[in-house]
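hey m, so remember when u said the tokens were messed up on ur end? i reran from scratch. heres the input so u can diff it against urs
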Amino acid sequence: MAKVGLFVTCIVNTMRPEIGFASLKLLEQAGFEAEVPRDQTCCGQPNMNGGDKAGAKDLALRLAKLYAPYDYVVVPSGSCAGTIRTHYPDFFDESDAEGERVRALAAKTWELTSFLTDVAGMKEVEARFDGALAYHDSCAGLRELKVKQQPRTLLKSVEGLELKDLPDAEVCCGFGGLFCVKYPDVSGEMVRKKLADIEGTEARAVAMGDAGCMLNIEGALARKGSDIKVWHVAEVLAGLAK
């Protein structure tokens, strides 16, 4: 049986651990032995975005060593998976011996819904969600990893769920990692537009595949006093969203 190392990400670990439990449940349902290495840390995306290439390289090497025993690395985050899979190899020259381990890590790293559908061949889940649910495409997963149809395929199999696509679904919510810190006014306007699109679907909840987007959209909805729920796609697919 192939071994999967789940990289839970910083935000999931500190803010929404239920996403990690949901991811483990889905991986086990797909027939994989899944583990969460205790010593995992940040993927280095904040370092990379902030210009600290040396710090990002150190974290890349650390994760390459930590996840060496696993056949696959699965991440419930398009942005963190995108950092590992598409950006890590650029940190090292082709002739760099250390870079070989990092490139091996990048090659076996997958975003959760992409892994479940494209690798495990999963087409349906055993879960229920009553009512309409809108889906937001997170930027990194969509653009760096081509995650688009995979979550929708699985969501359409959830009993009782009416899937609603957002207008301008591929437009950023305004989080963008450090972007929301550097440009708060622009970020705030972007999330206000995203909220209007979500509300326009009349769905009772919205799901997505990145916890950063969740924090941004959920916070904006809370400040507005909205009762629309925000879920990670893994929580919906694992039957944890009510």
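this time it looks ok to me. The first helix runs from residue 10 to 15. if urs says something different then somethings off w ur setup not the seq
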